[in-house]
Specification:
Keywords: Hydrolase, Magnesium, Metal-binding. By secondary structure, the protein is α/β, with parallel strands linked by helices. Helix content is 27%, strand content 26%. It is globular, with a radius of gyration of 19 Å.
């Protein structure tokens, strides 16, 4: 693996993610110790993407399936907007989950398991389900931005992305916009090599070329450790040297807005595969660039990310990369996480 990346299975707290999850049929949650890794030569030279197909399945079909799955999920979310919300907590008091998260994931799972019974699926709420030996892995975030949803704050989305050997090949995000009395949606879709769209129209990243003229976005996770504190310093720095820094609370939305050309860059530590799988493809297929904050090749199993229009990428990294390397967790940040045991990730 380039840059000394290692595949590991521990979360930030060191909590193992083994075990099964009840209530959703047969769920397979494998030990997340070490996936297999390989180097790829070129954008997606995986030996299976030929004539717009991945392992015999058309990329357009996979994109359309992701779009259908995200749309079905968004219908569940839409039906629950501005209604009383049943809120529970997960790892801490600010990490929320609602009945809508679970119902939305169930709707998406039902569709994907019917259409692709041999694929593996990773859902934020339910863990792994399906064929653990498959090279295809669907990553579902049924409601990215749950806290925003619970408060009717318009920055949340349904996200469905598909990996083949660790590389994103298709995805869709349905973003909820507006707010009470004026809700709307932006529906994004992308297939590897097919470009990205919003509401059916082709999209492209912005052409702004300096941080000084850019609007930036970041996020802060639930682990308030050393990396979190450094990102606070980044927030202060870039507020001074750019047109502003926003924190909206939904990685899927943040990535899609870079792809749409609304913002120029988005960065964050410790994102999960379901947070970013579809959004990363939107950025890349709209002409943008994605790496880790240490400048390494990015995979959805990486522990840091910067996504940009490509033109400001180097300037952003010039400030952040040397500082990230001073963290005591700098080496650990190059470890991969949430990789299913035995799953091949091609970098």
């Amino acid at each position: 693996m380039g840059y000394g990346m290692r595949a590991t299975g521990a979360s930030m707290s060191g909590r193992r993610l083994d075990g099964s999850v009840g209530g959703r049929g047969r769920v397979h949650r494998p030990a997340l110790r070490r996936g297999r890794t390989c180097r790829r030569s070129g954008p997606i030279s995986l030996g299976a993407l030929v004539a717009d197909e991945v392992d015999g399945i058309g990329v357009a079909r996979l994109r359309d399936a992701a779009l259908e799955a995200a749309t079905l999920g968004s219908e569940v979310v839409g039906d629950a907007i501005d209604k009383p919300v049943e809120v529970e907590t997960k790892m801490n008091a600010t990490d929320l989950v609602t009945k809508t998260d679970k119902n939305t994931e169930d709707a998406i799972l039902k569709y994907l398991r019917r259409e692709f019974p041999d694929h593996m699926i990773l859902g934020e709420e339910g863990g792994y389900v399906g064929n653990p030996d498959s090279d295809f892995l669907w990553c579902i975030d049924p409601l990215d931005g749950t806290t925003n949803f619970a408060h009717s704050f318009p920055s949340f989305a349904t996200s469905v992305g598909l990996l083949y050997k660790g590389q994103v090949v298709a995805g869709s995000v349905v973003e909820f916009t507006g707010g009470p009395k004026c809700w709307g949606m932006r529906t994004y879709a992308a297939g590897r090599g097919l470009g990205a769209t919003c509401n059916g129209d082709a999209i492209h990243v912005s052409d702004r070329s300096t941080v000084q003229e850019s609007l930036l976005v970041t996020g802060f996770g639930y682990d308030h450790g050393e990396a979190w504190a450094m990102n606070m310093e980044f927030f202060k720095h870039f507020t001074d040297v750019s047109r502003g820094v926003r924190r909206l609370g939904s990685a899927a939305v943040d990535l899609c807005q870079v792809a749409l050309g609304i913002t120029e860059s988005y960065h964050e530590f410790y994102l999960k595969p379901w947070d970013v799988c579809a959004g990363v493809l939107m950025v890349e297929e709209s002409g943008g660039k994605v790496t880790t904050l240490q400048g390494d090749d990015y995979t959805v199993f990486s522990k840091s990310m910067i996504a940009s229009n490509g033109k400001v990428h180097g300037e952003m990294l010039h400030h952040m990369k040397p500082k990230v390397e001073t963290l005591s967790v700098a080496s650990e940040l190059r470890d991969l996480w949430f990789v299913p045991d035995g799953y091949e990730v091609c970098l």
